Description:
The chain is of the alpha/beta class. It has 14 helices and twelve strands. The chain starts with a strand and ends with a strand.
Amino acid sequence: MKLGIIGKPQSGKTTIFNAASGQEEAVGDFSQSSHRAIIKVPDERVDKIAEIEQPKKIVHAEIEFLDAPGFTGKGKEAGAGEISNDLKLMDAFIMVIDAFSPDADPDKYIPALIDEMILSDLTIIESNIVKKLKKMKVTGNWEAQKEVDLLKQCQEWLENEKPLIEKELSPDDEKMLRGYTFLSQKPLLIVLNISEDKIDETDSIYEKYAHFVSKSKRDLAVICGKIEAELVSLDEEEYKEFMVDLGIKSPAVEQVIQKAYSLIGLISFITTGKPATQAWTIKKGTPAPKAAGAIHSDIEKGFIRAEVTSYEDYIEYKTPAALKAAGKSRLEGKDYIVQDGDIILFRFNV
Length: 350
């Protein structure tokens, strides 16, 4: 999974990046700087299974963060602007909003940044409509007319100041638009970056801006980036003590990843044995053979069946023999839909 961190200069987006990645990039008004990090996804299920199995290797799922320039916070006044190609390739965006300064105004800047994404998408659409119409007239080949018609529908939608993620599209339409990597079509996690003195108000702040939340499209997290960035420099024991003292319910990186997984519709299943205990990320609703393909294409091609155990049962019974005796391990076929936290042993024949 790839997450792009966006926000206007001095919103604290690089501070949030540092808190999530454990890096120490310079913060301030460095709006043209980009930072990238690949981190392990925290998952206590992997760690607890590894405690039982004692494998040679523990492998968590990974996530890529990109802290990128490209947004001014001026909304429609900014024009389309220049958005980096790397940012367009992200699976979702983390929009960091200043909720700590004296003139902070999330209700103003959240729509303004969404407007910038809409303007960027409009520029791409207008350019492509002109190019495709010109090419069809010159060549006499009108096969692209359906795509032009769809782009015009999207253009009208965006001109009404609505992001593309809110437009209902058929699977064929989504496939046709995929190559454009429209910004406003991506899920959005809004992070309200609050000041240290507001930590005990996180629930009420969330409720105040909950009107921006839209299932499977937008979610909201309330975080003090300054404190979170300082916490990651501490050792584990100090880290836990400070979290309790400060009343922080869960680390910023866990909040961000959990909400991003949910937005994009991702889950994890786990494989385990003496060589390795490993988490694998797949889309929710993935059938067993396709999930096996996340490990290796040969396993998908030669899929026979999956031996599945729930995480809760694995923790309770601990050994394959005890699980089988209790009837907690079951064999599933090609139609089985993998569930979050499933522990799976794939049987296959190449």
